[in-house]
């Protein structure tokens, strides 16, 4: 997302380089302008999830790891991530 905001950046090229749809990147940019208080954090996707259940998401934020599966309560997860993001 940050890369797409650089002067002279072409959103379609940035999206293609990171294997995301350009319209999704445009949406993120639009939403970030609508909520300037929101903070974006870098995300790294690592291959190889051997030993993890399907649908598991692992989030590392500020040295803390949070691991959830598809049955996580979204509201509760949002509260946890907001607290960690401070």
Describe the structure concisely.
This protein is α+β, with helices and mostly antiparallel strands and 86 residues long. The two termini are 21 Å apart.
- Helix tally equals 3
What number is the mean pLDDT? 83
Low-confidence stretches: none
The main β sheet shows up as: 2 strands, antiparallel
The string of secondary-structure elements, in order, is HHEEH
Binned, the helix content reads 25-40%
Q: Tell me the count of domains.
A: 2
What does this structure look like?
- The chain is of the alpha+beta class and 86 residues long.
- It folds into two domains: 33 residues, no CATH class; 43 residues, no CATH class.
- It contains three helices and two strands.
- A two-stranded antiparallel sheet has the order 1-2.
- A hairpin with a 2-residue loop joins strand 1 and strand 2.
- Helix 1 crosses helix 2.
- The longest helix is centred in the first third of the chain and has 13 residues.
- The two termini are 21 Å apart.
């Amino acid at each position: 997302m940050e890369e797409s905001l650089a002067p002279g950046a072409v959103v379609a090229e940035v999206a293609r380089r990171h294997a995301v749809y350009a319209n999704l990147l445009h949406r993120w940019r639009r939403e970030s302008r609508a909520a300037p208080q929101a903070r974006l954090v870098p995300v790294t996707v690592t291959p190889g999830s051997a030993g993890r259940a399907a649908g598991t998401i692992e989030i590392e934020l500020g040295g803390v790891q949070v691991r959830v599966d598809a049955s996580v309560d979204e509201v509760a997860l949002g509260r946890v991530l907001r607290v960690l993001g401070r």
